[in-house]
Protein backbone atom coordinates (compact mmCIF):
# COMPACT_ATOMS: atom_id res chain seq x y z
CA UNK A 1 0.00 0.00 0.00
CA UNK A 2 1.10 3.52 -0.66
CA UNK A 3 1.06 6.18 2.07
CA UNK A 4 -1.83 8.66 1.95
CA UNK A 5 -1.36 11.47 -0.53
CA UNK A 6 -0.71 14.08 2.18
CA UNK A 7 1.92 11.81 3.79
CA UNK A 8 3.65 11.24 0.42
CA UNK A 9 3.80 15.03 -0.12
CA UNK A 10 5.35 15.46 3.34
CA UNK A 11 8.01 12.81 2.58
CA UNK A 12 8.74 14.45 -0.76
CA UNK A 13 8.96 17.86 0.91
CA UNK A 14 11.42 16.58 3.50
CA UNK A 15 13.52 15.03 0.77
CA UNK A 16 13.46 18.23 -1.21
CA UNK A 17 14.53 20.23 1.82
CA UNK A 18 17.39 17.81 2.49
CA UNK A 19 18.60 18.01 -1.09
CA UNK A 20 18.29 21.80 -0.98
CA UNK A 21 20.45 21.99 2.14
CA UNK A 22 23.10 19.75 0.55
CA UNK A 23 23.10 21.88 -2.58
CA UNK A 24 23.27 25.10 -0.56
CA UNK A 25 26.19 23.81 1.52
CA UNK A 26 28.03 22.84 -1.66
CA UNK A 27 27.36 26.13 -3.41
CA UNK A 28 27.19 28.46 -0.39
CA UNK A 29 30.32 30.56 -1.05
CA UNK A 30 29.36 31.20 -4.68
CA UNK A 31 25.70 31.89 -3.87
CA UNK A 32 26.42 34.40 -1.11
CA UNK A 33 29.01 36.22 -3.20
CA UNK A 34 26.76 36.31 -6.25
CA UNK A 35 23.77 37.49 -4.23
CA UNK A 36 25.76 40.23 -2.57
CA UNK A 37 27.20 41.34 -5.88
CA UNK A 38 23.77 41.35 -7.51
CA UNK A 39 22.36 43.43 -4.65
CA UNK A 40 25.21 45.89 -4.95
CA UNK A 41 24.76 46.22 -8.72
CA UNK A 42 21.03 46.79 -8.32
CA UNK A 43 21.63 49.52 -5.76
CA UNK A 44 24.42 51.08 -7.78
CA UNK A 45 22.71 50.95 -11.16
CA UNK A 46 19.38 52.26 -9.91
CA UNK A 47 20.59 55.20 -7.85
CA UNK A 48 23.66 56.91 -9.29
CA UNK A 49 25.49 59.45 -7.16
CA UNK A 50 26.04 62.98 -8.46
CA UNK A 51 28.72 65.50 -7.56
CA UNK A 52 28.55 69.08 -8.78
CA UNK A 53 32.13 70.30 -8.38
CA UNK A 54 31.71 74.09 -8.56
CA UNK A 55 34.70 76.44 -8.63
CA UNK A 56 34.24 80.10 -7.75
CA UNK A 57 35.50 82.57 -10.38
CA UNK A 58 37.18 79.96 -12.59
CA UNK A 59 37.05 80.83 -16.27
CA UNK A 60 37.61 78.47 -19.17
CA UNK A 61 41.20 79.61 -19.75
CA UNK A 62 42.29 79.05 -16.11
CA UNK A 63 43.60 75.57 -16.84
CA UNK A 64 46.29 73.61 -18.65
CA UNK A 65 43.37 71.78 -20.26
CA UNK A 66 42.49 73.36 -23.61
CA UNK A 67 38.75 73.96 -23.98
CA UNK A 68 38.81 76.11 -27.12
CA UNK A 69 38.86 74.41 -30.51
CA UNK A 70 39.78 75.33 -34.07
CA UNK A 71 37.41 75.34 -37.05
CA UNK A 72 37.68 71.55 -37.31
CA UNK A 73 36.75 71.02 -33.65
CA UNK A 74 40.28 70.10 -32.54
CA UNK A 75 41.61 71.39 -29.22
CA UNK A 76 43.57 74.60 -29.61
CA UNK A 77 46.10 75.63 -26.99
CA UNK A 78 46.73 79.24 -26.02
CA UNK A 79 49.46 80.83 -23.84
CA UNK A 80 47.38 80.73 -20.64
CA UNK A 81 47.03 76.94 -21.00
CA UNK A 82 50.80 76.73 -20.61
CA UNK A 83 50.82 78.92 -17.50
CA UNK A 84 48.49 76.77 -15.39
CA UNK A 85 49.06 73.18 -14.23
CA UNK A 86 45.87 71.12 -13.84
CA UNK A 87 46.67 67.43 -14.45
CA UNK A 88 43.54 66.21 -12.65
CA UNK A 89 41.30 68.26 -14.92
CA UNK A 90 43.15 66.71 -17.83
CA UNK A 91 42.57 63.29 -16.25
CA UNK A 92 38.84 63.93 -15.94
CA UNK A 93 38.59 65.29 -19.48
CA UNK A 94 40.41 62.26 -20.91
CA UNK A 95 37.67 60.00 -19.58
CA UNK A 96 34.77 62.38 -20.17
CA UNK A 97 33.49 65.21 -22.32
CA UNK A 98 34.33 68.94 -22.24
CA UNK A 99 32.04 71.76 -23.32
CA UNK A 100 33.69 74.68 -25.08
CA UNK A 101 30.58 76.91 -25.19
CA UNK A 102 29.17 76.48 -21.70
CA UNK A 103 27.65 79.55 -20.08
CA UNK A 104 27.05 80.84 -16.57
CA UNK A 105 25.81 84.20 -15.38
CA UNK A 106 28.68 86.68 -15.08
CA UNK A 107 28.42 86.91 -11.27
CA UNK A 108 28.04 84.18 -8.68
CA UNK A 109 24.66 84.24 -6.88
CA UNK A 110 22.60 84.19 -10.11
CA UNK A 111 24.54 81.16 -11.34
CA UNK A 112 24.16 79.28 -8.06
CA UNK A 113 20.43 79.95 -7.98
CA UNK A 114 20.13 78.77 -11.60
CA UNK A 115 21.86 75.48 -10.75
CA UNK A 116 19.51 75.04 -7.81
CA UNK A 117 16.33 75.83 -9.78
CA UNK A 118 17.00 75.14 -13.46
CA UNK A 119 15.77 78.65 -14.19
CA UNK A 120 17.38 81.58 -15.90
CA UNK A 121 18.26 84.46 -13.58
CA UNK A 122 15.74 86.65 -15.39
CA UNK A 123 13.04 84.28 -14.13
CA UNK A 124 14.13 83.67 -10.51
CA UNK A 125 15.15 87.35 -10.34
CA UNK A 126 18.37 86.80 -8.40
CA UNK A 127 20.07 88.94 -11.04
CA UNK A 128 23.02 90.23 -9.01
CA UNK A 129 25.43 88.82 -6.46
CA UNK A 130 23.72 89.03 -3.08
CA UNK A 131 25.26 91.46 -0.59
CA UNK A 132 24.70 89.66 2.74
CA UNK A 133 24.10 92.83 4.71
CA UNK A 134 22.20 95.27 2.47
CA UNK A 135 20.17 95.42 -0.70
CA UNK A 136 22.62 96.05 -3.54
CA UNK A 137 20.19 96.64 -6.41
CA UNK A 138 22.17 99.70 -7.53
CA UNK A 139 21.08 103.29 -8.07
CA UNK A 140 18.67 102.46 -10.91
CA UNK A 141 18.31 98.72 -10.32
CA UNK A 142 14.84 97.12 -10.24
CA UNK A 143 13.19 97.58 -6.81
CA UNK A 144 11.62 94.11 -7.02
CA UNK A 145 14.70 92.06 -7.86
CA UNK A 146 15.10 89.03 -5.60
CA UNK A 147 17.62 90.20 -3.00
CA UNK A 148 16.18 87.77 -0.43
CA UNK A 149 17.34 84.85 -2.58
CA UNK A 150 16.02 81.30 -2.42
CA UNK A 151 13.15 80.67 0.02
CA UNK A 152 11.25 77.83 1.68
CA UNK A 153 8.82 77.78 -1.26
CA UNK A 154 11.51 77.54 -3.95
CA UNK A 155 11.65 74.21 -5.74
CA UNK A 156 15.34 73.36 -5.47
CA UNK A 157 17.32 70.46 -6.88
CA UNK A 158 18.45 69.14 -3.46
CA UNK A 159 14.89 69.40 -2.15
CA UNK A 160 13.67 67.27 -5.06
CA UNK A 161 16.48 64.72 -4.70
CA UNK A 162 15.97 64.48 -0.95
CA UNK A 163 12.28 63.68 -1.50
CA UNK A 164 13.39 60.74 -3.65
CA UNK A 165 15.71 59.22 -1.06
CA UNK A 166 18.99 60.95 -1.78
CA UNK A 167 21.36 62.13 0.91
CA UNK A 168 21.93 65.78 -0.02
CA UNK A 169 25.21 67.41 1.01
CA UNK A 170 26.48 70.95 0.67
CA UNK A 171 30.16 71.69 1.29
CA UNK A 172 31.69 75.14 0.78
CA UNK A 173 30.32 78.41 -0.55
CA UNK A 174 26.54 78.88 -0.67
CA UNK A 175 25.62 82.57 -1.20
CA UNK A 176 21.93 81.78 -1.76
CA UNK A 177 20.52 84.65 0.36
CA UNK A 178 21.45 87.43 2.83
CA UNK A 179 21.73 87.18 6.60
CA UNK A 180 18.44 86.41 8.40
CA UNK A 181 16.88 85.01 5.22
CA UNK A 182 15.91 81.40 4.57
CA UNK A 183 18.56 81.27 1.86
CA UNK A 184 21.26 82.06 4.41
CA UNK A 185 21.31 78.38 5.44
CA UNK A 186 21.55 75.63 2.78
CA UNK A 187 20.03 73.22 5.32
CA UNK A 188 16.72 75.07 4.83
CA UNK A 189 16.85 74.63 1.06
CA UNK A 190 16.93 70.85 0.83
CA UNK A 191 20.43 69.94 1.97
CA UNK A 192 20.59 67.49 4.87
CA UNK A 193 24.19 68.50 5.53
CA UNK A 194 25.75 71.95 5.35
CA UNK A 195 29.44 72.42 6.01
CA UNK A 196 30.93 75.81 5.24
CA UNK A 197 27.90 77.41 3.59
CA UNK A 198 26.53 80.82 4.64
CA UNK A 199 25.57 84.16 3.00
CA UNK A 200 29.20 85.18 2.43
CA UNK A 201 30.56 85.36 -1.10
CA UNK A 202 34.25 84.92 -0.32
CA UNK A 203 36.38 83.83 2.64
CA UNK A 204 38.01 86.27 5.01
CA UNK A 205 41.12 84.15 4.56
CA UNK A 206 42.20 80.79 3.17
CA UNK A 207 44.62 80.29 6.06
CA UNK A 208 43.80 78.20 9.12
CA UNK A 209 46.06 80.44 11.21
CA UNK A 210 43.62 83.27 10.47
CA UNK A 211 40.66 81.06 11.33
CA UNK A 212 39.46 81.15 7.71
CA UNK A 213 38.44 84.75 8.37
CA UNK A 214 37.29 84.29 11.97
CA UNK A 215 36.39 87.60 13.56
CA UNK A 216 35.52 89.19 10.23
CA UNK A 217 32.25 89.48 8.32
CA UNK A 218 33.50 86.76 5.96
CA UNK A 219 34.31 83.93 8.35
CA UNK A 220 33.84 80.44 6.90
CA UNK A 221 31.72 78.42 9.36
CA UNK A 222 31.95 74.82 10.63
CA UNK A 223 35.71 74.29 10.12
CA UNK A 224 37.11 74.92 13.61
CA UNK A 225 38.60 71.39 13.85
CA UNK A 226 40.96 72.14 10.93
CA UNK A 227 42.47 75.30 12.34
CA UNK A 228 44.94 73.62 14.67
CA UNK A 229 46.40 71.51 11.85
CA UNK A 230 47.06 74.53 9.64
CA UNK A 231 45.03 73.04 6.77
CA UNK A 232 44.52 75.35 3.80
CA UNK A 233 40.83 76.08 3.17
CA UNK A 234 40.58 74.18 -0.12
CA UNK A 235 42.08 71.07 1.47
CA UNK A 236 39.84 71.36 4.53
CA UNK A 237 36.69 71.45 2.39
CA UNK A 238 37.97 68.49 0.36
CA UNK A 239 38.44 66.44 3.54
CA UNK A 240 34.94 67.35 4.71
CA UNK A 241 33.49 66.32 1.34
CA UNK A 242 35.25 62.95 1.42
CA UNK A 243 34.05 62.32 4.98
CA UNK A 244 30.47 63.06 3.97
CA UNK A 245 30.74 60.76 0.94
CA UNK A 246 31.97 57.97 3.22
CA UNK A 247 29.08 58.59 5.61
CA UNK A 248 26.53 58.32 2.80
CA UNK A 249 28.09 55.06 1.62
CA UNK A 250 28.06 53.63 5.17
CA UNK A 251 24.33 54.37 5.29
CA UNK A 252 23.86 52.73 1.86
CA UNK A 253 22.23 55.88 0.48
CA UNK A 254 22.78 57.49 -2.91
CA UNK A 255 24.05 61.03 -2.53
CA UNK A 256 24.06 64.41 -4.21
CA UNK A 257 27.09 66.50 -3.25
CA UNK A 258 27.35 70.19 -4.03
CA UNK A 259 31.08 70.72 -3.52
CA UNK A 260 31.32 74.49 -3.99
CA UNK A 261 34.85 75.66 -3.30
CA UNK A 262 35.55 79.22 -2.18
CA UNK A 263 38.64 79.14 -4.37
CA UNK A 264 39.58 80.74 -6.62
CA UNK A 265 37.82 83.90 -5.42
CA UNK A 266 39.86 86.70 -3.89
CA UNK A 267 41.66 87.25 -1.56
CA UNK A 268 44.48 85.93 -3.72
CA UNK A 269 46.38 84.20 -0.92
CA UNK A 270 49.01 81.81 -2.14
CA UNK A 271 48.61 78.09 -1.36
CA UNK A 272 52.07 77.12 -0.03
CA UNK A 273 51.84 73.63 -1.54
CA UNK A 274 52.13 75.02 -5.07
CA UNK A 275 54.16 78.22 -4.83
CA UNK A 276 57.31 76.72 -6.31
CA UNK A 277 55.45 75.75 -9.52
CA UNK A 278 54.87 79.41 -10.39
CA UNK A 279 57.83 81.22 -8.80
CA UNK A 280 59.68 81.48 -12.12
CA UNK A 281 56.63 82.08 -14.32
CA UNK A 282 57.33 85.76 -14.87
CA UNK A 283 53.76 86.61 -13.85
CA UNK A 284 52.95 89.17 -11.10
CA UNK A 285 52.67 87.87 -7.53
CA UNK A 286 48.84 88.13 -7.42
CA UNK A 287 48.61 86.10 -10.63
CA UNK A 288 50.98 83.50 -9.18
CA UNK A 289 48.82 83.29 -6.05
CA UNK A 290 45.72 82.86 -8.22
CA UNK A 291 47.45 80.02 -10.06
CA UNK A 292 48.24 78.25 -6.75
CA UNK A 293 44.53 78.43 -5.89
CA UNK A 294 43.77 76.81 -9.25
CA UNK A 295 46.33 74.10 -8.47
CA UNK A 296 44.65 73.45 -5.11
CA UNK A 297 41.30 73.01 -6.83
CA UNK A 298 42.89 70.56 -9.25
CA UNK A 299 44.40 68.59 -6.36
CA UNK A 300 40.99 68.52 -4.68
CA UNK A 301 39.42 67.04 -7.81
CA UNK A 302 42.01 64.27 -7.89
CA UNK A 303 41.53 63.48 -4.20
CA UNK A 304 37.76 63.20 -4.61
CA UNK A 305 38.16 60.92 -7.64
CA UNK A 306 40.61 58.69 -5.76
CA UNK A 307 38.32 58.54 -2.73
CA UNK A 308 35.40 57.40 -4.87
CA UNK A 309 37.57 54.67 -6.40
CA UNK A 310 38.73 53.56 -2.96
CA UNK A 311 35.12 53.28 -1.78
CA UNK A 312 34.15 51.25 -4.85
CA UNK A 313 31.49 53.69 -6.03
CA UNK A 314 33.35 55.58 -8.76
CA UNK A 315 31.64 53.72 -11.60
CA UNK A 316 28.28 54.87 -10.31
CA UNK A 317 29.17 58.50 -9.56
CA UNK A 318 28.75 61.31 -12.08
CA UNK A 319 31.07 64.31 -11.81
CA UNK A 320 30.00 67.68 -13.24
CA UNK A 321 32.96 70.06 -12.97
CA UNK A 322 32.40 73.74 -13.78
CA UNK A 323 33.03 77.38 -12.89
CA UNK A 324 30.33 79.75 -11.65
CA UNK A 325 31.28 82.74 -13.84
CA UNK A 326 34.15 84.02 -15.94
CA UNK A 327 37.70 84.30 -14.72
CA UNK A 328 38.80 86.86 -12.14
CA UNK A 329 42.51 86.19 -12.64
CA UNK A 330 44.47 89.36 -11.75
CA UNK A 331 45.67 89.85 -15.32
CA UNK A 332 44.44 92.86 -17.27
CA UNK A 333 41.30 94.98 -17.05
CA UNK A 334 37.66 93.91 -17.05
CA UNK A 335 37.09 94.51 -20.78
CA UNK A 336 40.50 93.62 -22.13
CA UNK A 337 41.76 90.51 -23.88
CA UNK A 338 43.96 89.42 -20.98
CA UNK A 339 42.91 87.03 -18.21
CA UNK A 340 40.70 84.96 -20.57
CA UNK A 341 42.72 85.48 -23.77
CA UNK A 342 41.84 85.01 -26.58
CA UNK A 343 38.37 85.78 -25.16
CA UNK A 344 37.58 89.33 -24.14
CA UNK A 345 36.60 90.43 -20.63
CA UNK A 346 36.46 88.81 -17.22
CA UNK A 347 34.05 88.17 -14.33
CA UNK A 348 31.20 90.68 -14.28
CA UNK A 349 31.71 91.82 -17.86
CA UNK A 350 29.26 91.50 -20.72
CA UNK A 351 31.88 89.90 -22.95
CA UNK A 352 32.53 86.16 -23.38
CA UNK A 353 35.32 86.11 -20.81
CA UNK A 354 32.75 87.09 -18.20
CA UNK A 355 30.33 84.23 -18.76
CA UNK A 356 32.01 81.33 -20.59
CA UNK A 357 33.14 78.73 -18.07
CA UNK A 358 34.85 75.33 -18.04
CA UNK A 359 32.54 72.33 -17.96
CA UNK A 360 33.53 68.65 -17.84
CA UNK A 361 31.13 65.73 -17.43
CA UNK A 362 32.47 62.28 -16.62
CA UNK A 363 31.82 59.16 -14.65
CA UNK A 364 34.39 59.09 -11.87
CA UNK A 365 35.59 55.77 -13.25
CA UNK A 366 34.42 54.83 -16.75
CA UNK A 367 33.14 51.31 -17.38
CA UNK A 368 30.91 50.94 -20.42
CA UNK A 369 29.64 47.60 -19.06
CA UNK A 370 28.22 49.18 -15.93
CA UNK A 371 24.39 49.29 -16.05
CA UNK A 372 24.14 53.00 -15.28
CA UNK A 373 26.86 53.90 -17.77
CA UNK A 374 25.09 51.88 -20.45
CA UNK A 375 22.02 54.02 -19.79
CA UNK A 376 23.89 57.36 -19.53
CA UNK A 377 26.73 57.18 -22.02
CA UNK A 378 29.57 59.71 -21.84
CA UNK A 379 32.02 59.81 -24.72
CA UNK A 380 35.66 59.87 -23.56
CA UNK A 381 38.13 62.57 -24.54
CA UNK A 382 35.64 64.58 -26.59
CA UNK A 383 34.77 68.27 -26.92
CA UNK A 384 31.11 69.20 -27.26
CA UNK A 385 30.65 72.40 -29.28
CA UNK A 386 26.91 72.91 -28.79
CA UNK A 387 25.80 75.61 -26.36
CA UNK A 388 24.98 74.61 -22.80
CA UNK A 389 24.39 76.54 -19.60
CA UNK A 390 24.07 76.23 -15.85
CA UNK A 391 20.27 76.10 -16.25
CA UNK A 392 20.75 72.67 -17.85
CA UNK A 393 22.14 70.98 -14.74
CA UNK A 394 18.76 70.60 -13.00
CA UNK A 395 17.06 68.65 -15.84
CA UNK A 396 20.28 66.74 -16.57
CA UNK A 397 20.60 65.46 -13.01
CA UNK A 398 16.92 64.56 -12.96
CA UNK A 399 17.37 62.44 -16.10
CA UNK A 400 20.51 60.78 -14.75
CA UNK A 401 18.82 59.89 -11.46
CA UNK A 402 15.52 58.91 -13.09
CA UNK A 403 13.54 61.54 -11.18
CA UNK A 404 10.67 63.20 -13.09
CA UNK A 405 10.82 66.96 -13.49
CA UNK A 406 8.29 68.67 -11.20
CA UNK A 407 5.30 69.56 -13.38
CA UNK A 408 4.49 72.76 -11.52
CA UNK A 409 8.02 74.16 -11.75
CA UNK A 410 9.12 76.07 -14.86
CA UNK A 411 12.50 74.91 -16.17
CA UNK A 412 14.53 77.02 -18.62
CA UNK A 413 17.28 74.45 -19.13
CA UNK A 414 17.36 71.24 -21.17
CA UNK A 415 19.02 67.95 -20.34
CA UNK A 416 22.62 67.58 -21.50
CA UNK A 417 22.50 63.78 -21.54
CA UNK A 418 22.43 63.45 -25.34
CA UNK A 419 25.29 65.94 -25.62
CA UNK A 420 27.33 63.76 -23.24
CA UNK A 421 27.54 61.21 -26.06
CA UNK A 422 29.50 63.67 -28.19
CA UNK A 423 26.66 63.89 -30.70
CA UNK A 424 24.64 66.96 -31.55
CA UNK A 425 21.07 67.44 -30.38
CA UNK A 426 18.88 69.06 -33.03
CA UNK A 427 16.08 69.58 -30.50
CA UNK A 428 18.12 72.05 -28.47
CA UNK A 429 17.71 75.78 -28.98
CA UNK A 430 21.25 77.09 -29.37
CA UNK A 431 20.61 80.05 -27.10
CA UNK A 432 21.69 81.68 -23.87
CA UNK A 433 20.62 84.93 -22.24
CA UNK A 434 21.99 86.71 -19.21
CA UNK A 435 20.17 89.65 -17.61
CA UNK A 436 22.01 92.14 -15.37
CA UNK A 437 19.80 95.19 -14.57
CA UNK A 438 22.22 96.58 -11.95
CA UNK A 439 25.32 98.74 -11.61
CA UNK A 440 28.40 98.92 -9.38
CA UNK A 441 30.08 96.12 -11.29
CA UNK A 442 32.44 95.81 -14.24
CA UNK A 443 29.58 96.09 -16.72
CA UNK A 444 26.31 97.80 -15.80
CA UNK A 445 22.67 97.60 -16.88
CA UNK A 446 22.84 95.10 -19.74
CA UNK A 447 21.29 91.95 -21.17
CA UNK A 448 23.21 89.46 -23.31
CA UNK A 449 21.47 87.21 -25.84
CA UNK A 450 23.36 84.50 -27.69
CA UNK A 451 21.70 82.62 -30.57
CA UNK A 452 23.73 80.32 -32.79
CA UNK A 453 26.90 82.23 -33.69
CA UNK A 454 25.33 85.67 -33.06
CA UNK A 455 25.63 87.58 -29.81
CA UNK A 456 23.65 90.69 -28.91
CA UNK A 457 24.51 92.95 -25.97
CA UNK A 458 21.75 95.41 -25.11
CA UNK A 459 22.78 98.38 -22.96
CA UNK A 460 19.96 100.09 -21.07
CA UNK A 461 22.18 103.10 -20.34
CA UNK A 462 24.90 103.39 -23.00
CA UNK A 463 28.23 104.47 -21.51
CA UNK A 464 31.94 104.29 -22.23
CA UNK A 465 31.71 100.56 -21.44
CA UNK A 466 29.62 100.14 -24.59
CA UNK A 467 31.47 102.82 -26.57
CA UNK A 468 28.31 104.90 -26.33
CA UNK A 469 26.30 102.25 -28.21
CA UNK A 470 22.95 100.82 -27.09
CA UNK A 471 23.42 97.74 -29.28
CA UNK A 472 26.48 95.58 -29.76
CA UNK A 473 26.25 92.69 -32.21
CA UNK A 474 29.04 90.17 -32.74
CA UNK A 475 29.54 87.15 -34.98
CA UNK A 476 31.37 84.87 -32.54
CA UNK A 477 32.31 82.37 -35.20
CA UNK A 478 34.19 84.97 -37.24
CA UNK A 479 35.12 87.23 -34.32
CA UNK A 480 35.50 85.24 -31.06
CA UNK A 481 37.27 88.17 -29.38
CA UNK A 482 34.27 90.48 -29.93
CA UNK A 483 36.30 93.22 -31.60
CA UNK A 484 33.94 94.30 -34.40
CA UNK A 485 30.44 95.60 -33.63
CA UNK A 486 28.15 94.70 -36.56
CA UNK A 487 25.00 96.41 -35.25
CA UNK A 488 25.07 99.04 -37.99
CA UNK A 489 25.91 96.74 -40.90
CA UNK A 490 23.59 93.83 -40.00
CA UNK A 491 20.31 95.63 -39.37
CA UNK A 492 18.08 92.63 -40.22
CA UNK A 493 19.92 90.31 -37.83
CA UNK A 494 19.98 93.03 -35.16
CA UNK A 495 16.21 93.52 -35.47
CA UNK A 496 15.58 89.76 -35.22
CA UNK A 497 17.90 89.37 -32.23
CA UNK A 498 16.32 92.25 -30.29
CA UNK A 499 12.84 90.87 -31.05
CA UNK A 500 13.84 87.44 -29.75
CA UNK A 501 15.49 88.95 -26.67
CA UNK A 502 12.32 90.87 -25.79
CA UNK A 503 10.28 87.68 -26.19
CA UNK A 504 12.58 85.75 -23.81
CA UNK A 505 12.51 88.48 -21.18
CA UNK A 506 8.73 88.76 -21.33
CA UNK A 507 8.38 85.00 -20.98
CA UNK A 508 10.54 85.17 -17.84
CA UNK A 509 8.58 88.16 -16.52
CA UNK A 510 11.92 89.89 -16.07
CA UNK A 511 12.37 93.08 -14.06
CA UNK A 512 14.26 96.02 -15.53
CA UNK A 513 16.37 98.98 -14.47
CA UNK A 514 14.57 102.28 -13.99
CA UNK A 515 15.07 105.85 -15.08
CA UNK A 516 15.50 108.76 -12.66
CA UNK A 517 11.71 108.91 -12.20
CA UNK A 518 11.38 105.22 -11.34
CA UNK A 519 9.96 104.17 -14.72
CA UNK A 520 10.92 100.71 -15.98
CA UNK A 521 13.38 100.75 -18.90
CA UNK A 522 12.40 97.84 -21.13
CA UNK A 523 14.48 97.13 -24.24
CA UNK A 524 13.89 99.38 -27.25
CA UNK A 525 13.68 98.12 -30.80
CA UNK A 526 16.36 99.52 -33.13
CA UNK A 527 15.30 101.92 -35.83
CA UNK A 528 15.05 100.47 -39.33
CA UNK A 529 17.56 103.05 -40.54
CA UNK A 530 20.48 101.47 -38.75
Defining key terms:
530 residues, alpha/beta, eight-stranded mixed β-sheet, four-stranded antiparallel β-sheet, 14 helices, disordered N terminus
Q: How is this structure best described in words?
A:
This protein is an alpha/beta fold and 530 residues long. Helix content is 31%, strand content 13%. The chain has 14 helices and 14 strands. The protein has helices at 5-46, 79-83, 87-95, 108-117, 121-124, 157-163, 233-250, 275-278, 285-311, 352-355, 371-375, 393-401, 417-420, 491-508; strands at residues 49-55, 97-99, 102-103, 167-172, 193-195, 255-261, 317-323, 359-363, 382-384, 388-389, 431-436, 446-451, 454-459, 471-475. The strands form three sheets. The protein has an eight-stranded mixed β-sheet, sandwiched between helices. A hairpin with a 2-residue loop joins β12 (446-451) and β13 (454-459). α3 crosses α9 (285-311) and α7 (233-250) packs parallel to α9. The N and C termini lie far apart (111 Å). Residues 1-45 have low confidence and may be disordered.
| Tally of alpha and pi helices | 14
Gyration radius (Cα, Å) is 26 Å
Strand-pairing-aware structural class:
alpha/beta
Distance between the termini: 111 Å
The topology string of helices and strands comes to HEHHEEHHHEEHEHHEHEHEEHHEEEEH
Give the neighbour order of strands across the main sheet: 5-4-6-1-7-8-2-9
User: What share of residues are in beta strands?
Assistant: 5-15%
The poorly predicted ranges are 1-45
Shape assignment: globular
Q: How many beta-strand segments?
A: 14
Mean pLDDT: 92
Task: Specify the helix fraction band.
Answer: 25-40%
Report the biggest beta sheet as strand number plus sense, adding barrel if it closes: 8 strands, mixed
Amino acid sequence: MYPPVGHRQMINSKAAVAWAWLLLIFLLPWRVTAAQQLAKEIVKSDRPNVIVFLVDDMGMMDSSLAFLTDAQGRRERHPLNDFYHTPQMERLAAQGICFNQFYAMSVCSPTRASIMTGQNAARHRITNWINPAENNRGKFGPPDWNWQGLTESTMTLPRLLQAHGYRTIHVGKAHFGPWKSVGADPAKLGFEINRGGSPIGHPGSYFAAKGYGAGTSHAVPHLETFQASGTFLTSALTQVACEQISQAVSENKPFYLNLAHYAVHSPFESDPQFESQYADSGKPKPAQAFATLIAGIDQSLGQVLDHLIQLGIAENTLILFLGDNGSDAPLGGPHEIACAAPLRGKKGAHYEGGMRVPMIASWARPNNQHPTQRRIRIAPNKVQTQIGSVCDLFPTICEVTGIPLPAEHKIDGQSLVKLFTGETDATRAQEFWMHFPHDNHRSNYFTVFRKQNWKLIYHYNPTEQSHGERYQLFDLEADPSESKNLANSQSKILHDMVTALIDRLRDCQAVFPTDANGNSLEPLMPSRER
